[in-house]
User: Fold these one by one.
Assistant:
Number 1:
Amino acid sequence: MHPGNRNLVTIDDLPSGEIEALFSLADEMADSINAYAGLCQGKIMASLFFEPSTRTRLSFEAAMLRLGGHVISAVDIGASSLAKGESIADMAKVVGGYADVVVIRHPWEGAARVVADYAGVPVINAGDGGHEHPTQTLCDLYTIRKERQTLKGLRIALWGDLKHGRTVHSLIYALARFGATILFYPGPGLELPEHVIRRLSTEYRGELKRSEDLDQGAKRKFVPIDAVYVTPSSPHQLAMMPDISIQVELKAGVDALYVTRLQKERQAPAAEQRESGKDYPVVDRRLLRGKEFEKTLVMHPLPRVDELACEVDSDPRSMYFKQAAYGVPVRMALLSFLLGAREIPTQEAGDSFVKKTSYPVYKRDSGVRCPNKNCVSNQETEVKYIKPQFKTVSLDPVILRCIYCDHEVSPRYVASSDWHQGKRENKKYHSAGSHWARKIKPENLIVFASEKEAQARQFKPSRYVRR
Ligand code: NCD
């Protein structure tokens, strides 16, 4: 199949079958890394890194050079026209005219989606703020598969800054699709964001057990766990979910411990930083003596700071430098696929353990904005052309998820577009929590952040407006 304009903005842009096929290609490429110098000859990759990077940028550039292609780059926002107030869309259109593929890292969440919307060539997200980092996930999964020969039904523990860590977010969604059990060990105040948890339970239909619900036996045996997420290990087992015993899961040990650093740059006030930095959990030799870690792969996307002791480096369980090294063959496979230089067999959703839910998109301009200040849709240079768009995740209660950054908003007032039949006096709005909200068809939904917004659009309060 020719991929046309396929992008990798979120890890969900690649079905599980394609991920496995990319890994087989990466295996071939790793075995004879110099044999592919003709594959992308004459192609140009634009490497746009507007946040610090060592591994991701250099492994992408090395991958493109190994494929016989060329690299053009911009690595400093201050040295590009973005500093003059140029929009991301304009930059994307221009760079898309110079290159055959664009790799972008940007501090705003959702920036890579905007580049993909405007570049006209395949776009790869190399990290957009605290949102996602799908190619790091490919390196992580590739490492696990190399060591464990499978990606299915594994028990993976995620450690550290689960709130701001984009690598963790992409990894979670992929693991859920491969039927994993995920254990969460967050630093203080660094638990998974609510929208990630909701996405796990609504889209991947797994079960999340908070630590207070775990039985005492399980809790005593292990270092403090915040929560455990269990995906059904095959679709037909969904009905049997309540029977899965967390304790049995935990006793079987952890396949991989994924350590992350405190993402200081994404924490707003200095006080918050001090608070989370104080008791940030550390992985060292002593911790790894625990029985549950006997056969555990110790992973880290790197760079590490103090959360992973150097004494672990000589332990055969440490995987992080291998993870970084795999970046080249994995990105070679991805680039040659997206550039249409290599075909890979496509297997569709049937190969996934969990069939994802798709939601209707809310596009009306009714004044509701994404609540995330760091979302691309809220930036001064971008509001001129980006219209907020949301997935309608639920009508009871009303929950909209931003299509750029995944943050959620629950507007307070709703109306339906088929009730007023063009007659002004029938244009009524209701409280989002009233029984009317549940009756509105997603395609007719209109939401308002405030009564003022509703009234500015000529809607009048119904009897079902609670103040
Ligand atoms: C990560 C990133 O940039 O999100 N690094 C990487 O790409 N390997 C992790 C981090 O910076 O902590």
Number 2:
Amino acid sequence: MTEGGTAPAPVAGRNLIAGEWIESVSGRAFESRNPADRDDLVGVFQAGSAADVAMAVRAAEMAYPAWRAVPAPKRGEVLLRYAGLLRRDKERLARALTREMGKVIAEARGDVQEAIDIAELMAGEGRRMFGDTVPSELPDKWAMSIRQPIGVAGIITPWNFPMAIPAWKTMPALVAGNTVVFKPASDTPWCATILVELMAEAGFPPGVVNLVTGSGAEVGDAIVDSPDVPVISFTGSTTTGKRIAERAGRRLKRVALELGGKNAIVVLADADLDLAADGIVWSAFGTTGQRCTACSRVIVEAAVVGPLMEKLERRVRALRLGDGLLADTDVGPLINETAAAKVEEYVEIGRREGELVCGGSRATGGALDRGVFFEPTVFAGVAPMARIAQEEIFGPVLSIIPVADYDAAVTAVNHTRYGLSSSIFTRDVNVAFRAMRDFETGIVYVNAGTIGAETHLPFGGWKETGNGHREAGHAALETYTEWKSVYVDFSGRLQRAQIDNQPG
Ligand code: NAP
């Protein structure tokens, strides 16, 4: 550990199947290391295989009839207990998260808080889970719709929100009465293990939640291909999401995809430029630019490019890189060397497509040499269709795109394959409302950055950011429930809809 103390002993991770913490039948394992200090071995985890997935799916199937029979409000009580345990252990979880994934501790606390928020929200869904009760067109007949669980939910998550995203998926799945097979990202198996340990403590019965760690190619594919997993919820890259959708489509599975983004902040000439600069820096370099909602494009009215750049550059140059557990760190490491190589590649492309204002290199020297650090990087004078303005880099790289006016800004915002988050800084309420209407994204912010979604509204994106599903809010239940329409005829006679009640 890099906080000046002695490194704790590495965790010996296990899979959780049918309530038992067990080793993989593969006999193989993989390491998880601290990206701020690659010498710090967080733990060794099971390299799961298709055989482990088969066992986990079987366990989830066995647990399903009893769990779905638990009244939803009682299932909600287990979620509420879980939220309480997350709250009790929030600091421990946040520190583990920073150590394994790298984001600064304040953001790690926010990640855990999102998990708490969704657990509490979904606990309440146990007492709502609304359907419709509507009048029948026939006398003495009742008509209503109810939600029912689907079965075993396969949940596959990325590393960038290693506590929030698994909670965003498991909580609605579980309160709705499904059981779960959960495969976390291979960069954050410890975070997943802690989350699942607390689920067991909260009282989810054995087999209701099963954890299998291991690679996407082995564990992920096995979950997606399993005929006994009717619903898949996936968050990750658009490339992987498309692949999953194709495979799952062969079995007509329900697949909810939350994928990549290329999120823009628009700054108009009348904006509060200090506020805009603060919002841009937070959105672009928070989580080292590794948020699906991270801002990677600033689309700015030409009249204020100069003053905005001056404010931005000053703020970006002041950011301090380091171990996220240290109090004075603003920006943590990238997740791994593959991510750093990708950022380096795009920076080289950026040098040809724009003017490098600051950053542009690996950050080294002292303790930084032990981790995977990259300087916060800004390119100015970037064209809307440049590659660095179109492709998801998923790192601390920001493109400044000058435009003539609001209409050109809208065109630039919308001209990408993604559609997750967007924002506009302006003092003109009319223009703000136009942006809320015009931006083709699932989330729009006014006078705030592109990050900061709350759990009680739907979360997700348009276009290649997903396939129309939403997480969080009531909308999350759509992924994990089937609708059933129920008609009760208490007339005691045959009544024919659309026939007996027609004139003539
Ligand atoms: P990724 O490489 O697509 O991996 C995501 C998850 O999928 C990991 O658990 C990964 O396992 C697994 N996986 C990989 N190949 C698979 C396969 N063939 N079948 C099944 N599962 C497979 O994405 P990432 O690099 O972890 O995450 C970054 C991406 O996630 C970015 O594009 C970001 O925008 C997106 N993201 C989107 C949202 C959103 O809500 N829209 C939120 C957060 C992140 P391994 O780790 O073992 O490879």
